Amino acid sequence: MDIDVTEHYDKIYRYCFLRVRERETAEDITQETFLRFIQQPSYHYSTDKALRILYTIAKNLCTDHFRKPPPQALDDNIPANDNIEDNVIDNLTLRQALFELSDEDREIVLLRYINDVPVGVISSIYGISRFALNRRLKRILTQLKSSFGKE
Amino acid sequence: MTNKELEELKNAFDIPEPQHKNEFAEVYLEQLKKNKPSLFPQIFRFCSAAALCVLALGIFSRFRDTDYLHDHHSEIIITDTVTSVADTFPADTALPITSSLKTDNTSPSAASSAHSTVYSASTVSAVSSSSVKNSTANFTTAAVRSSVSAASPASSDASAVYTTANVSTKTALVTSSVSVSASSRMTTSKITAVSSSTAASSSVQTTADNNVQPVVTIPSSSSVPTEKTVSIAVTPSIVYSADDICGADVIDNPSRDKATQIQGNDFNNGDPLSDMAQQADVILIGRLSDIIYTSISGNPFTQENILAENVLLSDGIIKNNVLFSLYLPGGYIKAEDLITSDDLDLPPDSLIYQSGGISGNQKLDSSYLFMLKKSDDIPENAYAPVMNSDISIFALNGSNYVSVADPMIFFSDVSIILPDQ
E strands within A57-133? Predict the structure, then answer.
């Protein structure tokens, strides 16, 4: 297997955190993702396919997390899902622009520009074509361009 | 997107750093060591890919061999062209020869059913067979040894035949016969000139391209002449009875004890059929009617009385329905009449059999093809076999004429090209 856990742990964690908005939960899902990944009979596939499997597992685990009943007590250290604006200290304009994006668009931006996931992997995760993904990324960047450098 | 913009974007997401990354990495690596990947999927994948490649190659090669895509209408068209020899004769060259062309179509697969069409090289000089001792004839034998590929089309080689008015000439033409199979019928004849005349004056040269000569194919040997038989058989002065054959001692002729010794020694060009045909004065198919044991000057001889059924090459004397005598060396002789260098302590009245190089494979009332010649050592009107052995006597065995002395010498068909008469 060509997956470096120290490198991809952060990326999977960011992806999970973006979806669940809870650090501990995101970290648990990330670890569960890797543990399930090594149990795959074909986890020694190529990097692209391994990434696709990893993100698919993470995505499914995040989805399963929201299907579970909500926890009774919240951890004080974890920011709530709806107070992302409250955690923003700087670059408020860009955060506002990201907040105005849909959840899927934010995930795509994270995967493509933060985690450097190949376009082919992202397109296969979301079930869209590479050209559609490129058009979508171009549209998202057009929305975010005006927010860059306006700190 | 620039690095600065990427950094801004990363900060904008405001994702906290994970807290248990290093701890999980250690656990993950331990789990990874325990869960080593199996090589079976890789091997299975490699083998399946190789098998698929082999299968694809096999299908591709099969596809190419059978050529399914192209030429679905390529069928072998067999055309059977029967050429009538009579039609090929020019009207002005009609020859007074009672000849017939026999084409046997009874069994295409058998070798005897050869479509024998001979494009003959012929002479144009008229030679009277009754006045000339050695008549001019072109003898054609169909030699089996010269096999012809069945795929080759019919072809004819021109051969020059030289005849003169003063010098008798025998020209033996060896013709290859063709066995036609059921799937591919063809006719091929290849004529090779063997000899030519010695006199240069008044010679006439013709080739196969100029004249077409009729071909006489030997009819079935079982045909019985209906004409009256004329006997010129020799009456021997001494006759030995072979009734007491049980008491006879066998003495081989030391000079020629085996007929096969003739091969390779007495043939000039290594082709026994051609050589024998050259040396023969008479070639015929006759039926062995009688066998008489006699002696000449202390040497045993076997006299065979033969009824000529189909004379292929005549010296002017032997014709159809003529009963004549053939003298073969060897036979039964009394000990007192035998002149030999060996000291034999035998009773004078005892009967001795000396082979004389004769195989003795002939049977009474059976037809054979004889190649005969005249000899000074035997009575007049009698004939001796060519090579002084029964190697020049051929028995019809199926579709082949096989030498009674050497089964390795045989031919499939005999045709005689007769000159103008």
Answer: none
ipTM of the modeled complex: 0.71
The beta strand positions in B204-298, using DSSP E, are 204-206, 216-217, 230-231, 249-251, 282-296
Cα dihedral value B365, B371, B377, B379, nearest 10: 50
Reported as a single tens digit per residue, the pLDDT across A132-151 is 998 988 888 888 877 665 54
Where exactly are the structural domains of chain B? Answer: 230-407
Ordered by where they begin, the domains of chain A are 1-72 (1.10.1740), 90-151 (1.10.10.10)
Q: What pLDDT, in 10s, does the model give residues B129-159?
A: 333 334 334 443 333 333 333 333 433 333 3
Interface of A with B (CB under 8 A): 1, 5-6, 9-10, 13-14, 17-18, 23, 26-27, 30-31, 34-35, 38-39, 41-44, 84, 87-88, 90-91, 94-95, 97-98, 106, 109-110, 113-114, 141, 144, 148-149, 151
Of A13-17, B82-86, B112-116, B315-319, where does mean pLDDT reach its minimum?
A: B112-116
The answer to whether residues B385 and B393 touch, using CB atoms and an 8 Å cutoff, is yes
Residue B264, token pair as written in the block: 């390779």
Nearest by Cα to B385 from B270, B304, B269: B304
Tokens, residue A106 = 């934010």
Please enumerate in sequence order all residues whose Cβ is within 8 A of that of B421, keeping only pairs 6 or more positions apart, or say none. B95, B96, B97, B126, B127, B128, B129
Q: Is B326 helix (H, G, I), strand (E, B) or coil?
A: strand
- Residues B340-351 have pLDDT tens digits of 666 666 777 777
Q: How far is CA B47 from CA B39, B43, B55, B96, in A?
A: 12, 6, 12, 83
